[in-house]
Amino acid sequence: MKLYYMPASCSLSPHIVINELALDVEMIKVDHTNHKTEAGLDFYDVNPHGYVPVLELDDGSHLSEGPVIVQYLADLKPDAGLAPAAGTMERYKLQEMLSFLSTEIHKGFIPLLYARLAGNYVETAKPKLEKRYQWINAHLADRTFLMGDRFTVADAYLFALTGWGQAAWLKSYYRAGIHFDELDHLAAWYGRVKQRDAVKKSIIEEGLALN
Q1: Judging by beta carbons within 10 Å of its beta carbon (0-12, 13-18, 19+), is residue 58 exposed, middle or buried?
Q2: Residues in the chain with pLDDT values less than 50
Q3: Among 31, 157, 174, 193, which residue carries the largest CB count within 10 Å?
Q4: pTM of the model
């Protein structure tokens, strides 16, 4: 398998999952400025939308959309517990959380990441995103990870997104202009996730700063 990724983007999420599961996946870096791989492949030939992540399976077919990819990867090694079994209520709750992260958090960051183009819309988008993070902070008050006591693919996704608001370790890739320093439960969760071996390995492999 191959994972097409851009450093510090949302593709950090499946990258973390791959390392959590010790899967044999070739990492294909895509340049965010010209959408070409290091081998010169036009990434638009892989994904016409031009965005990562994309997982190329051994038969040459592709999966796109991060929440789908991380569930597929988790199901390759179900005993690792990164996703509950398909068809269970716990799995539906995980999918509910992944959908929330995709539509309310991931999408909510876009105007902040492209503030110059978004213009005055940032003034509406930023308070809304802050409110969503306040909910996550309260959600984490009585649990270690998003879904309870176990790290899941949802934590990998949220970690990748939340990094955009913790710009110190992102070098110059993404600057969202938002921080969550006053959200104590979120900060504690972020620190726990950042200390995981698979997370540190993924950050280093993408050439990012660990601090």
Answers
A1: exposed
A2: 168-173
A3: 157
A4: 0.93
